[in-house]
Amino acid sequence: MTYDVLVIGGGPAGLSGAVALGRALRSVLVIDSGQGRNAPAEGIHNFLTRDGMSPAEFRAAGRAEVEKYGGKVIEGEVVSAVPGFEVTLADGSVHRARRLLVTAGAVDLLPDVPGLAEGWGTTVLHCPYCHGYEVRGKAIGVIGTPGEEQTEHKMRLWGQWTPDLRLLPLDEIAAVEKDGVRMTDGSLVARDYLVVSTRVEARAAFLGTLGLEAVEHPMGIGTIVPAIDPTGRTAVDGVWVAGNVADPMAQVISAAAAGLAAGAMINADLLPPAPDKP
């Protein structure tokens, strides 16, 4: 069948957009790779009435809501999409739709430090608004470059949550160990949590076959698939983006809001043209 809309990505943006479209009586298929950016986190925060809910529980509830309104959710990795729209998955299956909502998210690339990735999302953090309250008062190490603007900003910002803050120069770190950070001089700096800046890259390789490429974020923090208006419309007719694929700083609640806005505009775009006035 040809769906009204294919939603590529089953995170908060995609699920929210799918619910809006389902409630508008559109046929919707959500394709989810299962690679949620916040999957390692214990819980989501700053989402009114959902504080502390695990990412897995949030997704399960969202999927159930999509299905409640007639949408369908499947597991799969999109490898290409061509005008029309025809989307091919890694397993060779093909799905078609009149419009695309791309909410595939982003991936965080961490500095190449042994042991750092193992703690990502639990003891290795990046966002104080996501995790700061939970680690308040703990011994925190900020990994960065002394004198660098971004590093100095993180030191000032995280200082709101703890007085026990220490800057750990990236080029002096040998490895992250269970009890702290091993420096190149052999010393061990005991820290409960580490803060690190990541490069955030949009999951968008499959859009190249549509002529839609990821570009560098204006702040130089990674890549995004750019929208040409606030609803998420892209330069490719019939394709919208929402969530971290377009905004790496979007939290769960703002990603969901962006998905809703995109879903509403896609529904409007699918309306038949207005009749000619006499």
TrEMBL record:
Top-level taxon: Bacteria
- Swiss-Prot/TrEMBL keywords: Flavoprotein, Oxidoreductase
Gene3D superfamilies the UniProt entry points to: FAD/NAD(P)-binding domain (3.50.50.60)
Q: Name one Pfam family in it.
A: Pyr_redox_2
Coiled coil: which residue ranges? Answer: none
Q: Which InterPro entries match?
A: FAD/NAD-bd_sf (IPR036188), FAD/NAD-binding_dom (IPR023753), Ferredoxin-NADP_redctase_2 (IPR050097)
- Reaction(s) catalysed by this chain's protein: [thioredoxin]-dithiol + NADP(+) = [thioredoxin]-disulfide + NADPH + H(+)
* Residues of the FAD/NAD(P)-binding domain: 3-144
**SUPFAM superfamilies recorded for this chain?**
FAD/NAD(P)-binding domain (SSF51905)
The identity of this protein, by name, is: NAD(P)/FAD-dependent oxidoreductase
